[in-house]
Design brief:
The complex is a heterodimer of chains A (214) and B (335). Chain A has 214 residues and is mainly alpha-helical. Chain A contains ten helices and no strands. Classes of the chains: A mainly alpha (214), B alpha/beta (335).
């Protein structure tokens, strides 16, 4: 137990990696997910089909399977990324599907009159989406997006299975050394709870401030 | 050990009408199955060209018995050895030995996907112990990891752990070890064309893969403190990492590495083992009789040649030469 506490700085470093992975993965997911939403709600049929296929494929594969394919399958095709990059990219690609669905729901929450009004004053599809609909939609999506971020944080632990030295990876390393799974995993759990509770708290505040009053 | 999979779907399905989701799921299930197939092919492909069913590839050694034949000939304990109220009596009453182990360790405990049987030295030994206690080789496997082995013994989820489980004094504070029943040592696997790595010191400054649940990771720190360690879950992944250039070398017990090399001419094992890994059978600490009983059983199968025949039927199908002498019971620090 004492040995484990002595290595708390080592675990904190792992938590840092977890956060880096989560932030990169989430940022990528939001960008890609929003693009996917634009494809799915847009007027061009082939784009709608591609967007839908993407979401359905990624939502229906376990992230671990995808990660292992990415890390051990791609090199066979001649493409090798570092393990950290691989995981960040996987998280972004994977959670983009969830972000897409959240953004789509947010768009549905914007009254249809807003889109009609935008068109009535002569805005193009792109203009009405970018200037009228998405800004309102994002305001209703604070909670769903925060949930997705929490999902990204927790899922980043799968990196331990493919050699990324994040929080769980380092926890397992300590466990290997000291055979103390209970205190090590308790500490790791505390790390995750700390992050996720903070996110939930911030999201609650942000939502109050952003809410569209109708 | 890794929280996964379950949470995602339900938590993030917010935006979706339940009915529509349900309708689509059937079609998607096919895609998942297909992908899962690809995954097993890829993930396992590195290390596990699976040993043929029944064990004997035949050609070279016509006299070798299969694992099932060795187990069938294994001894059964005399009734007098099963003292009332003991660990043994509990197992005999249940009729099945609850084993903690793995199903993905080549040569030691790997599930044959065709027959569904567990094949390997650890698997065979656990079946022989089950037969010794209950009269039939009935075992029930629970998968254990380095994180859970001691705990599952302590809380009674399993009766015994057979998992290339290195005896260490630290682990022996929590559980009891019978044995050692096998001696191995860490060796180094590299690409066949690599001539720059020949001993542990050469690993300094290189990237070295190893299994996250092995003591090799710790040994590596001792013998090559400047090596960068990559921890993977499985043997196949470590092998793939070396073949794909992600790691310069892979360090693990020599027996397991020889199994990998036997499957793949693009790889080689260099040097001699540089550590000693005495494998023990993990038993609950609370039943001192269990350890004495299992040790007595080990002595029996050492003496009547069953141990050597099992070695021949499992490890011997991948490693050339005759069976080594079994290690002396109680010789490891912690056993």
């Amino acid at each position: 137990m004492r040995e484990v506490v002595a290595h708390i700085g080592y675990l904190a470093g792992g938590l840092g990696t977890t956060l880096e992975l989560s932030l990169l993965g989430f940022a990528g997911a939001v960008v890609l997910g929003t693009l996917l939403t634009v494809m799915r709600v847009g007027p061009v049929l082939p784009l709608r089909v591609v967007g839908t296929l993407y979401v359905e494929v990624f939502r229906n594969v376990p992230l671990l399977a995808f990660l292992v394919l990415f890390v051990f399958g791609l090199p066979d095709a001649g493409i090798t990324y570092s393990l950290f990059t691989s995981e960040a990219v996987c998280l972004a690609l994977y959670f983009a599907a969830y972000v897409c669905e959240a953004v789509r729901a947010g768009i549905n929450a914007v009254p249809v009159g807003q889109a009609e009004a935008a068109r009535a004053i002569g805005m193009t599809f792109g203009q009405s989406l970018a200037l009228v609909i998405l800004p309102q939609a994002f305001r209703t999506m604070v909670q769903p997006l925060a949930n997705i971020f929490i999902g990204v944080v927790l899922s980043s632990s799968l990196g331990a299975a493919v050699g990324v030295s994040e929080l769980i990876g380092r926890t397992q390393w300590l466990d290997l050394q000291y055979d103390e799974p209970v205190p090590t995993f308790l500490l790791a759990t505390a790390g995750y709870v700390l992050v996720t509770l903070t996110v939930a708290l911030l999201a609650g505040r942000l939502q109050k401030r952003m809410a569209v009053r109708r | 050990m890794v929280p996964q999979k379950n949470g995602n779907r339900s938590e993030h399905g917010d935006g979706e009408g339940a009915g529509r989701g349900r309708r689509r799921r059937g079609a998607a299930a096919g895609a998942v199955l297909a992908l899962a197939g690809v995954l097993t092919a890829c993930g396992g492909g590195g290390g596990s060209s699976l040993p043929p069913a029944g064990g004997a590839p035949g050609a070279g050694k016509p006299s070798a018995l299969t694992q099932a034949q060795v187990v069938a000939a294994a001894p059964v304990a005399p009734a007098s050895a099963i003292t009332a109220g003991s660990w043994m009596a509990k197992v005999r009453k249940r009729g099945t030995l609850l084993v903690g182990g793995t199903d993905s360790s080549a040569m030691f405990s790997q599930r044959n996907p065709v027959s569904g049987q567990l094949e390997g030295f650890d698997a065979g030994l656990s079946q022989m112990l089950a037969k010794y206690v209950t009269g039939k080789p009935s075992t029930k496997l629970s998968l254990v990891t380095v994180d859970t082995r001691e705990t599952m013994l302590q809380n009674g989820t399993v009766d015994a752990v057979f998992a290339t489980y290195t005896i260490t004094p630290q682990r022996a504070r929590k559980i009891a070890f019978a044995g050692p029943y096998y001696e191995s040592g860490d060796a180094i696997l590299v690409k066949a064309g690599n001539s720059t790595i020949t001993e542990p010191a050469d690993l300094n400054g290189r990237t070295v893969a190893t299994e996250g649940n092995s003591t090799a990771a710790l040994d590596l720190r001792k013998f090559a403190p400047k090596a960068k360690t990559l921890l993977f879950q499985e043997d196949g992944e470590c092998v793939a990492a070396v073949k794909q250039g992600r790691a310069d070398a892979y360090v693990l017990d020599q027996g397991i590495l020889l199994g990998d090399v036997a499957n793949d001419p693009a790889l080689k094992v260099v040097g001699q083992p540089f550590t000693q890994e005495p494998y023990g059978i993990g038993l609950p600490k609370g039943d001192p009789e269990a350890k004495a009983f299992v040790n007595a059983w080990l002595k029996t199968i050492y003496a009547d040649g069953e141990w050597a025949r099992l070695w021949k039927a499992t490890i011997g199908t991948k490693v050339a030469g005759s069976p080594p002498a079994p290690p002396t019971i109680g010789s490891a620090d912690g056993s």
